[in-house]
Amino acid sequence: MVNRTKGYLQYLIDKVEENTISAGEKKLLDDYMQYEYDQAEWDAAKMGSKEKVSASIYQQISTPTQHKKSVRQYYKYAIAASIALLVCLGIELKLQSSASKIYSLSTSSSLDSVVLNDGSTVYLAAHSILNYPAQFEGQTREVSLIKGNAFFKVTKDPAHPFIITSGNIKTKVLGTSFHISLEKDRSSVTVVTGLVHVSSKKQVVILKPNEEVVATKAGFKKLKVTDTYLYHWYEKDIELNNVSLDKVFTLLKFKYGIQFNPENKRILDTRLTLYIKGDLPLQKILSQINYITNLKFKTYENSVVVNE
After folding, report:
1. Residues 291, 296, 300: CA angle, nearest 5 degrees
2. Are 267 and 244 in contact (CB under 8 A)?
Protein backbone atom coordinates (compact mmCIF):
# COMPACT_ATOMS: atom_id res chain seq x y z
CA MET A 1 0.00 0.00 0.00
CA VAL A 2 2.82 2.40 0.89
CA ASN A 3 4.62 1.76 -2.42
CA ARG A 4 1.42 2.31 -4.42
CA THR A 5 0.70 5.53 -2.54
CA LYS A 6 4.24 6.81 -3.05
CA GLY A 7 4.00 5.97 -6.74
CA TYR A 8 0.82 7.96 -7.21
CA LEU A 9 2.15 10.89 -5.20
CA GLN A 10 5.30 10.90 -7.35
CA TYR A 11 3.06 10.97 -10.43
CA LEU A 12 1.31 14.07 -9.09
CA ILE A 13 4.60 15.69 -8.15
CA ASP A 14 5.87 15.11 -11.68
CA LYS A 15 2.76 16.87 -12.99
CA VAL A 16 3.53 19.82 -10.73
CA GLU A 17 7.05 20.02 -12.18
CA GLU A 18 5.66 19.83 -15.72
CA ASN A 19 3.01 22.43 -14.85
CA THR A 20 0.28 20.05 -16.07
CA ILE A 21 -1.43 19.33 -12.76
CA SER A 22 -5.15 20.04 -12.67
CA ALA A 23 -6.91 22.04 -9.98
CA GLY A 24 -8.46 18.86 -8.64
CA GLU A 25 -5.11 17.08 -8.44
CA LYS A 26 -3.53 20.07 -6.72
CA LYS A 27 -6.34 20.08 -4.19
CA LEU A 28 -5.71 16.38 -3.61
CA LEU A 29 -2.11 17.16 -2.68
CA ASP A 30 -3.20 20.02 -0.41
CA ASP A 31 -5.82 17.89 1.32
CA TYR A 32 -3.71 14.75 1.54
CA MET A 33 -1.98 15.29 4.86
CA GLN A 34 -5.06 16.80 6.51
CA TYR A 35 -7.09 13.72 5.64
CA GLU A 36 -4.44 11.21 6.68
CA TYR A 37 -3.74 12.76 10.04
CA ASP A 38 -7.46 13.07 10.73
CA GLN A 39 -7.93 9.35 9.97
CA ALA A 40 -4.85 7.96 11.68
CA GLU A 41 -4.79 6.81 15.29
CA TRP A 42 -2.46 9.27 16.98
CA ASP A 43 -0.47 8.45 20.11
CA ALA A 44 0.50 11.86 21.43
CA ALA A 45 2.80 10.41 24.08
CA LYS A 46 4.93 8.72 21.42
CA MET A 47 4.47 11.03 18.47
CA GLY A 48 4.08 14.45 19.99
CA SER A 49 1.32 16.95 19.31
CA LYS A 50 -0.63 15.93 16.23
CA GLU A 51 -1.53 19.54 15.50
CA LYS A 52 2.08 20.75 15.69
CA VAL A 53 3.45 17.98 13.48
CA SER A 54 0.78 18.38 10.84
CA ALA A 55 0.99 22.17 10.93
CA SER A 56 4.71 22.00 10.25
CA ILE A 57 4.15 19.88 7.17
CA TYR A 58 1.14 21.88 5.97
CA GLN A 59 3.13 25.09 6.22
CA GLN A 60 5.57 23.77 3.63
CA ILE A 61 2.78 22.58 1.36
CA SER A 62 0.57 25.65 1.54
CA THR A 63 2.97 28.60 2.00
CA PRO A 64 2.61 30.84 -1.09
CA THR A 65 5.66 31.80 -3.11
CA GLN A 66 6.33 33.78 -6.23
CA HIS A 67 8.63 31.15 -7.71
CA LYS A 68 7.16 28.05 -9.36
CA LYS A 69 10.38 26.13 -8.78
CA SER A 70 10.14 26.75 -5.04
CA VAL A 71 6.52 25.60 -5.01
CA ARG A 72 7.50 22.37 -6.73
CA GLN A 73 10.31 21.81 -4.25
CA TYR A 74 8.01 22.41 -1.30
CA TYR A 75 5.58 19.80 -2.65
CA LYS A 76 8.33 17.30 -3.27
CA TYR A 77 10.12 17.64 0.05
CA ALA A 78 7.03 18.12 2.19
CA ILE A 79 5.25 15.09 0.78
CA ALA A 80 8.38 12.95 0.88
CA ALA A 81 8.88 13.96 4.51
CA SER A 82 5.28 13.20 5.38
CA ILE A 83 5.48 9.74 3.78
CA ALA A 84 8.69 8.96 5.65
CA LEU A 85 7.13 10.17 8.91
CA LEU A 86 4.03 8.04 8.50
CA VAL A 87 6.06 4.96 7.51
CA CYS A 88 8.29 5.37 10.56
CA LEU A 89 5.25 5.71 12.80
CA GLY A 90 3.70 2.60 11.30
CA ILE A 91 0.63 4.38 9.96
CA GLU A 92 -0.95 2.81 6.88
CA LEU A 93 -1.29 5.22 3.98
CA LYS A 94 -4.58 5.29 2.12
CA LEU A 95 -4.71 7.81 -0.70
CA GLN A 96 -8.07 9.55 -0.89
CA SER A 97 -9.06 10.59 -4.40
CA SER A 98 -12.23 11.10 -6.38
CA ALA A 99 -12.39 7.33 -6.89
CA SER A 100 -13.47 5.11 -3.98
CA LYS A 101 -10.91 3.57 -1.69
CA ILE A 102 -10.11 -0.06 -2.36
CA TYR A 103 -10.20 -2.30 0.68
CA SER A 104 -8.78 -5.79 1.01
CA LEU A 105 -10.43 -8.53 3.07
CA SER A 106 -7.95 -11.29 3.85
CA THR A 107 -8.64 -14.45 5.87
CA SER A 108 -6.28 -16.87 7.60
CA SER A 109 -7.68 -20.05 9.15
CA SER A 110 -11.29 -18.93 9.53
CA LEU A 111 -14.09 -17.52 7.41
CA ASP A 112 -15.17 -13.90 7.15
CA SER A 113 -17.80 -11.91 5.29
CA VAL A 114 -18.47 -8.38 4.11
CA VAL A 115 -21.63 -6.52 3.15
CA LEU A 116 -20.86 -4.21 0.23
CA ASN A 117 -22.40 -0.78 -0.05
CA ASP A 118 -25.02 -2.01 -2.55
CA GLY A 119 -26.27 -4.59 -0.04
CA SER A 120 -24.52 -7.56 -1.67
CA THR A 121 -22.84 -10.03 0.69
CA VAL A 122 -19.57 -11.85 0.06
CA TYR A 123 -18.58 -14.83 2.20
CA LEU A 124 -14.84 -15.37 2.10
CA ALA A 125 -13.39 -18.81 2.87
CA ALA A 126 -10.20 -19.38 4.84
CA HIS A 127 -6.91 -18.43 3.15
CA SER A 128 -8.66 -16.12 0.67
CA ILE A 129 -8.34 -12.49 -0.41
CA LEU A 130 -11.03 -10.14 -1.78
CA ASN A 131 -10.51 -6.56 -2.97
CA TYR A 132 -13.56 -4.29 -3.06
CA PRO A 133 -14.34 -0.56 -3.16
CA ALA A 134 -15.76 1.38 -0.25
CA GLN A 135 -18.43 2.61 -2.64
CA PHE A 136 -19.41 1.50 -6.12
CA GLU A 137 -19.23 4.27 -8.73
CA GLY A 138 -20.06 4.44 -12.41
CA GLN A 139 -22.08 1.96 -14.45
CA THR A 140 -20.72 -1.25 -12.89
CA ARG A 141 -20.08 -2.79 -9.48
CA GLU A 142 -16.63 -4.38 -9.56
CA VAL A 143 -14.63 -6.48 -7.08
CA SER A 144 -11.66 -8.85 -7.38
CA LEU A 145 -11.12 -12.28 -5.87
CA ILE A 146 -7.34 -12.43 -5.56
CA LYS A 147 -7.07 -15.86 -3.98
CA GLY A 148 -9.17 -18.69 -2.60
CA ASN A 149 -12.93 -19.26 -2.43
CA ALA A 150 -15.88 -16.93 -2.07
CA PHE A 151 -19.66 -17.20 -2.19
CA PHE A 152 -21.53 -14.18 -3.52
CA LYS A 153 -25.11 -13.11 -2.82
CA VAL A 154 -25.53 -10.19 -5.19
CA THR A 155 -28.26 -7.60 -4.79
CA LYS A 156 -30.25 -7.24 -7.99
CA ASP A 157 -29.57 -4.04 -9.93
CA PRO A 158 -30.12 -4.39 -13.72
CA ALA A 159 -28.70 -0.91 -14.36
CA HIS A 160 -25.39 -1.73 -12.67
CA PRO A 161 -23.95 -5.17 -13.47
CA PHE A 162 -21.85 -6.82 -10.77
CA ILE A 163 -18.45 -7.95 -12.08
CA ILE A 164 -15.91 -10.17 -10.33
CA THR A 165 -12.38 -10.55 -11.67
CA SER A 166 -10.73 -13.82 -10.59
CA GLY A 167 -7.48 -14.64 -12.32
CA ASN A 168 -8.00 -14.50 -16.08
CA ILE A 169 -11.79 -14.64 -16.03
CA LYS A 170 -14.57 -12.17 -15.38
CA THR A 171 -17.94 -13.11 -13.92
CA LYS A 172 -20.82 -10.74 -14.68
CA VAL A 173 -24.24 -10.86 -13.00
CA LEU A 174 -27.22 -8.63 -12.33
CA GLY A 175 -28.43 -10.30 -9.15
CA THR A 176 -27.82 -13.92 -8.19
CA SER A 177 -25.89 -16.28 -5.90
CA PHE A 178 -22.84 -18.28 -6.91
CA HIS A 179 -19.49 -19.68 -5.80
CA ILE A 180 -16.08 -18.75 -7.23
CA SER A 181 -12.90 -20.71 -6.63
CA LEU A 182 -9.46 -19.43 -7.64
CA GLU A 183 -6.50 -21.79 -7.44
CA LYS A 184 -3.01 -21.69 -8.93
CA ASP A 185 -3.77 -23.43 -12.23
CA ARG A 186 -7.55 -23.28 -12.43
CA SER A 187 -10.59 -21.26 -11.49
CA SER A 188 -14.26 -22.16 -11.42
CA VAL A 189 -17.67 -20.53 -11.15
CA THR A 190 -20.68 -22.49 -9.85
CA VAL A 191 -24.19 -21.03 -10.01
CA VAL A 192 -26.80 -21.64 -7.30
CA THR A 193 -29.46 -19.12 -8.38
CA GLY A 194 -29.93 -16.81 -11.38
CA LEU A 195 -27.92 -16.45 -14.58
CA VAL A 196 -24.18 -15.79 -14.68
CA HIS A 197 -22.02 -14.57 -17.57
CA VAL A 198 -18.41 -15.83 -17.43
CA SER A 199 -15.76 -14.70 -19.90
CA SER A 200 -12.06 -14.80 -20.67
CA LYS A 201 -10.16 -13.19 -23.54
CA LYS A 202 -11.12 -16.09 -25.81
CA GLN A 203 -14.34 -17.62 -24.48
CA VAL A 204 -17.76 -16.73 -23.12
CA VAL A 205 -20.29 -18.96 -21.37
CA ILE A 206 -23.70 -18.37 -19.78
CA LEU A 207 -24.41 -20.45 -16.69
CA LYS A 208 -27.78 -21.39 -15.21
CA PRO A 209 -28.48 -22.78 -11.73
CA ASN A 210 -26.67 -26.08 -11.06
CA GLU A 211 -24.10 -25.38 -13.76
CA GLU A 212 -20.38 -24.79 -13.43
CA VAL A 213 -17.52 -23.69 -15.63
CA VAL A 214 -13.93 -24.72 -14.94
CA ALA A 215 -11.26 -22.51 -16.51
CA THR A 216 -7.72 -23.79 -17.11
CA LYS A 217 -4.97 -23.00 -19.61
CA ALA A 218 -6.75 -25.36 -22.00
CA GLY A 219 -9.92 -23.24 -21.90
CA PHE A 220 -13.43 -23.49 -20.45
CA LYS A 221 -15.18 -26.71 -19.49
CA LYS A 222 -18.89 -26.49 -18.68
CA LEU A 223 -20.32 -29.05 -16.25
CA LYS A 224 -23.59 -29.98 -14.55
CA VAL A 225 -23.58 -29.81 -10.76
CA THR A 226 -25.72 -32.19 -8.72
CA ASP A 227 -24.36 -31.57 -5.23
CA THR A 228 -25.10 -27.87 -4.82
CA TYR A 229 -25.20 -28.28 -1.03
CA LEU A 230 -21.40 -28.34 -1.17
CA TYR A 231 -21.44 -24.67 -2.13
CA HIS A 232 -23.25 -23.70 1.06
CA TRP A 233 -20.01 -24.08 2.98
CA TYR A 234 -20.42 -20.50 4.27
CA GLU A 235 -23.52 -21.33 6.34
CA LYS A 236 -23.14 -21.28 10.11
CA ASP A 237 -24.31 -24.86 10.66
CA ILE A 238 -23.85 -27.61 8.07
CA GLU A 239 -25.47 -31.03 8.18
CA LEU A 240 -24.21 -33.75 5.84
CA ASN A 241 -26.31 -36.91 5.74
CA ASN A 242 -24.88 -40.16 4.38
CA VAL A 243 -22.47 -38.50 1.95
CA SER A 244 -19.19 -39.79 0.59
CA LEU A 245 -15.93 -38.76 2.17
CA ASP A 246 -15.00 -37.31 -1.21
CA LYS A 247 -17.89 -34.82 -0.90
CA VAL A 248 -16.97 -34.01 2.69
CA PHE A 249 -13.41 -33.21 1.65
CA THR A 250 -14.69 -31.01 -1.19
CA LEU A 251 -16.81 -28.95 1.20
CA LEU A 252 -13.96 -28.66 3.70
CA LYS A 253 -11.63 -27.60 0.90
CA PHE A 254 -14.00 -24.76 0.00
CA LYS A 255 -14.55 -23.75 3.61
CA TYR A 256 -11.00 -23.98 4.94
CA GLY A 257 -8.93 -23.50 1.79
CA ILE A 258 -6.96 -26.71 2.27
CA GLN A 259 -6.31 -29.67 -0.04
CA PHE A 260 -6.95 -33.28 1.04
CA ASN A 261 -4.58 -35.96 -0.25
CA PRO A 262 -5.70 -39.54 0.52
CA GLU A 263 -2.94 -42.15 0.26
CA ASN A 264 -5.57 -44.62 -0.94
CA LYS A 265 -8.30 -43.24 -3.22
CA ARG A 266 -10.59 -46.08 -2.18
CA ILE A 267 -11.35 -44.41 1.14
CA LEU A 268 -13.08 -41.54 -0.69
CA ASP A 269 -16.11 -43.82 -1.15
CA THR A 270 -16.57 -44.11 2.61
CA ARG A 271 -19.96 -42.72 3.59
CA LEU A 272 -20.71 -40.83 6.76
CA THR A 273 -23.06 -38.38 8.44
CA LEU A 274 -21.45 -35.25 9.83
CA TYR A 275 -22.69 -32.14 11.59
CA ILE A 276 -20.47 -29.05 11.49
CA LYS A 277 -21.59 -26.46 14.02
CA GLY A 278 -20.64 -22.83 13.68
CA ASP A 279 -17.07 -21.87 12.86
CA LEU A 280 -15.62 -25.10 14.18
CA PRO A 281 -11.82 -25.30 13.70
CA LEU A 282 -10.69 -27.76 11.04
CA GLN A 283 -8.82 -29.91 13.57
CA LYS A 284 -12.05 -30.46 15.53
CA ILE A 285 -13.82 -31.62 12.37
CA LEU A 286 -10.96 -33.96 11.51
CA SER A 287 -11.24 -35.40 15.02
CA GLN A 288 -14.94 -36.07 14.39
CA ILE A 289 -14.17 -37.84 11.12
CA ASN A 290 -11.43 -39.84 12.82
CA TYR A 291 -13.90 -40.96 15.49
CA ILE A 292 -16.43 -42.07 12.84
CA THR A 293 -14.08 -43.68 10.30
CA ASN A 294 -10.85 -44.34 12.23
CA LEU A 295 -8.92 -42.57 9.45
CA LYS A 296 -5.69 -40.77 10.34
CA PHE A 297 -4.90 -37.19 9.34
CA LYS A 298 -1.55 -35.42 9.10
CA THR A 299 -1.96 -31.67 8.68
CA TYR A 300 0.49 -29.44 6.82
CA GLU A 301 0.28 -25.74 6.01
CA ASN A 302 -1.93 -26.06 2.91
CA SER A 303 -2.81 -29.75 2.82
CA VAL A 304 -3.96 -32.75 4.81
CA VAL A 305 -2.66 -36.27 4.15
CA VAL A 306 -5.25 -38.98 4.85
CA ASN A 307 -4.42 -42.62 5.52
CA GLU A 308 -6.01 -45.67 7.08
Report:
1. 125
2. no
